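Quick one: structure for this chain?
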Amino acid sequence: MLKRLLNLLTSGAKDSSKASAIRTSDGAILIPRDQHNISRKNISPAAIKIIKQLEDAGYAAYLVGGGVRDLLLGNHPKDFDVATNAKPEEVKRLFRSARIVGRRFQIVHVRMGREIIEVTTFRGHHEESSSHARSEDGMLLRDNVYGTLETDAMRRDFTVNALYYTLKDFSVIDYCNGMEDLKNRTLRIIGDPATRYKEDPVRILRALRFAAKLGFSLEPKTSKPIRELSGLLLNVSDARLFEEVLKLFLGGSATATFNLMREYDLLTHLFPGTDKALKAGDELGANLIEQCMINTDKRIRAEKTVTPAFIYAALLWPGLQQQFKQLSGQMTPTQAWAQASQNVINQQLTRTAVPKRFLIPMREIWDLQQRLPSRLGMRALRTLDHPRFRAAYDFLLMREAAGEALDGLGVWWTNYQSANDEEREQMVKDVGRQPGGKSASKPRRRRGPRKPKTDAAPGGNE
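Got it. Here's what it folds into:
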């Protein structure tokens, strides 16, 4: 559909029965309704209502960004953004359920039923205003500079995200040749790549995320500065990086995204412990993360939930294993495991924030990996009753799928869950009879305090 659409765009006047694309005075290409495949029935009714309400109030309003891009690609987007010339305060006055968010650039979230539509004011050229602030590295710290539809298009990140759809005549407006890049399946940043990455280093992550999600190739000039400038990610707040990492792995293309992160050496900044272990040759760790990403993609596409705790447990596992091996010769295994876990977590928190609601279950998943092999007596039953057992069991199966030799531990726990009480008791006894297995020992009787010895006189007499 998209190829046919863009062939029509390039041929234009060859078919006189259809209106051809028009080049406007400000340099935009206006693509009429009969030359694109966007249908209003595929657009969120909430977004349409917001656009019409803005227009009725005398403002200009357009559908913009990923929603337009995905509609043109024949997909069914879940999120729709609106761009307007109304200021944030003006938007807020129009909608009772609106609230202004953001510091660097203010946007408005308008709630319509269960949906939240993001409404942004047209951005302007920040160089022309003194109301912006930059860091020494060129990162924009404040950017509430407003402009026109044309300047807004030039301020967006990638050409395929700078396409606008209007309800007035149902045309698509293209200032940056985004339609051509859609046709060629190319992701191209708008403007000078190095400058745009310095303005907001998160654009580096967005470039890899969109390339992976869309299956597009990075345009050479867009990809060239990524390795050199990726260190600027350390200037981004750890809370924002955590949110961006979740977007990387919860969009249904985690596998492709992780491969691109390794290709462009981004792990060294985002997951330093993992990067060190993988570069040292930890193939099992690399395989485990790959299994995690494959499983995550499957669950996302099946519309199942995925907890960040599980993803982080896998991403940090190689670093944990490396730390554990280094500490094992210095302390007991239990102490080494606890210290290694804490070291890995402390290091990660210097790069990305991880809320406690994810840190605690992540560590429980790790700790249960130490408990799962211990099955004698009542240990198996107690482990089965642990609230984090299911996640730990899934993690165990993932370790085996990655190639780790665990002597059939995953199969044992699979069978144990479906067995009745008698079968479970027999399974535990069989474990004790295995070579190297130990029978469940009886509890040791506590001995009372010893009586102090007295010195006896020679011959036994006092």
